[in-house]
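Hey,

The postdoc asked me to send both predictions to you directly instead of through the lab channel. I've kept everything plain text so nothing gets mangled by the mail client. Protein one:
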Amino acid sequence: MRLGSLALCLLATFALSTTSYAQGLGGPSSVQAELEPGDGLTDPQFRSDFPRNTAPGYFAWADKLAKDHGLRFNFDYLALGQSSNADIGAGNASGGIARFYGSWQATETGSLTFKIENRHAYGAVAPQFLGFDGGAVSITGTAFNDNGTMLTNLFWTQRAADGAWSVQVGQIDVTDFVDIYGLVSPYTGFQNLAFNTNPTINAPNPGLGIAGGVKLGGNFYMTGSIADANADPSSPDLDVFSDGNLFKSLEIGYTSDFGRLYFDNIHLTLWHSDAANDGSRAEDYGAAFSAAWFIDNKWMPFLRAGVSKGTAALYEKSVSGGVGFYMRNTDMAGIGLNWAQANGLPGNQATLEAFYRFSISPGLQITPSIQYIKNPLLNPAQSSITVLGLRARAVF
């Protein structure tokens, strides 16, 4: 797609104001959501005020900057360690992510969102690859790779004054808004990709793109995106205008209220990814369905499924189900079960993940987890693999 065609697509796409504080597309892993403590829940309660009580002057300055100039930002650091009983591979992995992200409300209806991060492994294997290292077709530590410094977000959001539509243009991460639900974030929820963005979707790395949506009455919405399918956030460029290799998505969904978009949500997502001009990636396309509902602001059962041509996405077919449970102090527990088939491999693979997130303060979370992978597709000699994990997140 050349520049002229891309401009026409810009005029045809819109973004959706998803929560009372968000001003564009965004799920639990988006900058808008992560700037709010307590998963966007009202009146969150915590055991501690760390780290605000360690540097009250700094946080008072940051609060004043947000109030007077509309600039909100966070620094955070995440660490993940995992250990596997696989009879091949390294058997353990660890890594971290350092991030600086925020949003500047430049005008009444326009804002600039940014995120810079550094992803690194502590040892030979990053958690994202521990599953493959042990013979499973499984990403056991989503986002915890060793990609180095990346520009993940740098986009402008323009929205209607009444929130009926908005547009995002710039460096975007489609996994922030494509096929989202309340437990999608690998930073605060499930760690296995089977329970994050649907593993049958060949989502590109963050890169240049356009995303948008529009409210269709009081409860329905439609969103769409066009993004660089060859994106490399460690070396951002404008090559999409010349090579035309694009990822496209279209989603239509239902929610109980637009302030609860990723809490109460049922949607269907269609997507297509062009083949790479250099032959490194084949064309891929598919569809995904998701249904999740927040009951009594405590229980979130979910059912998610997807199917793809299967040439480039992790799975050709996938079905996931489970439940999340929010408790006082915004602690959260989750359990999920996934069944999947991978392209070109016989048989199927099942994954179970359970975790408990201790929310000690708005700026400190500790999450132990266990993953059980039955019939690892790349290691048929072993009937199952168990992965133990411990994730920590500190926000400043």
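Protein two:
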Amino acid sequence: MAVRGAASRPASGPVVLPGVWPVVLTTERLDLVPLHPSHAEEMAGVLSDPALHSFIGGEPLPPDALRARYERLAAGSPDPGVVWCNWVLRLRAGRELVGTVQATVEPARGRAELAWVVGTPWQGRGLAAEAARALAGRLRELPVGLLVAHVHPDHAASAAVAAACGLRPTPHRQDGEVRWESGGGPDGPTGRA
């Protein structure tokens, strides 16, 4: 079912893009649950491997610092033209959290930037691609025509996730990362900046 609508700001709380956030999305093996500060303690363990941060940057955060970050994300973007959509990935078998997906959506521009991360113990199972495909599919149902991701040129697994979402690499670079994009249609990248 296609979901249509522009972003709106409730009397209090984050900007909401109908049909994207804060709804639970499901895949064959995962529940994509809207991120909440209460996820911080478990997610601190999921993201605790320092090697995981070699491509995503930063370092593992303790639960209290991650909670503060999640509080900022859950509050929503301070820019009224931007919608932050963040989910934790809950593996249905076992019910544990295994990673995150996110989209920074600019409804007026019809654009969304995607990102994903899966904790080291759960990598290599196709979970990031499964979650990112679900998110990309939901965004394509909305008036979001341009999907973008930035992938480190040496991160083959993340490039495979981008490709699984229908994105293709472009010649554009940002902070040393390759810009991948899809116009949402069969023609692929639009070349828009």
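Summary for protein two, as requested: The chain has five helices and eight strands.

Thanks,
C.
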